[in-house]
Amino acid sequence: MLDFPPILMATLQSTTLTLCSLLIARFLTSNPPPSILPLVLYTIISTPPNYLWQQYMERIWPGYTTRKMRVDDGGKGVEVEKKLNLMNTLAKSGLDQTVGAVVNVACYIGGTRLLRGLPLAECLEAVREQMWPVMKAGYKLWPAVSLIQHVFIPVEKKIVVGSVVGLGWGVYLALFAA
Prior knowledge:
Elements: H1 6-28, H2 36-60, E1 64-70, E2 78-84, H3 86-115, H4 120-138, H5 142-152, H6 158-177
Antiparallel strand pairs: 1-2
């Protein structure tokens, strides 16, 4: 089996899940389906920065802190205790749902239109018109997903887990983009 760097694996997995959500959306809608290539290209472009964002947040605000404990086991070593750092977890979720969400939604709305060849002015207008409805819909799902990810999911798997949840969200966005 090939050993790809984690950022590449996350990109390939996210792209595959995006493609699946687009095909499901295509099957579900009677409207003209969204153009698949620009949306897949957007996923390829946007996954690495999102992966790096998650890595950065974990490095700055580790979700778990470790503490070495002395163990009377005849000198064989020490026991390590992992403890959830609630403040760091809340900080990461808060940043993810504010700064991260605003940047990602705006880039998705504008970026996918740019990749379809629409003029910049039209892309910016779409961001102005659609940003808050998409954000409002997203706040019904993503805060819970973010909190679960920051508590239970290892940092290198967060993008993929988000993409799995995002399969349904992707169907919604694909239908929204149509």
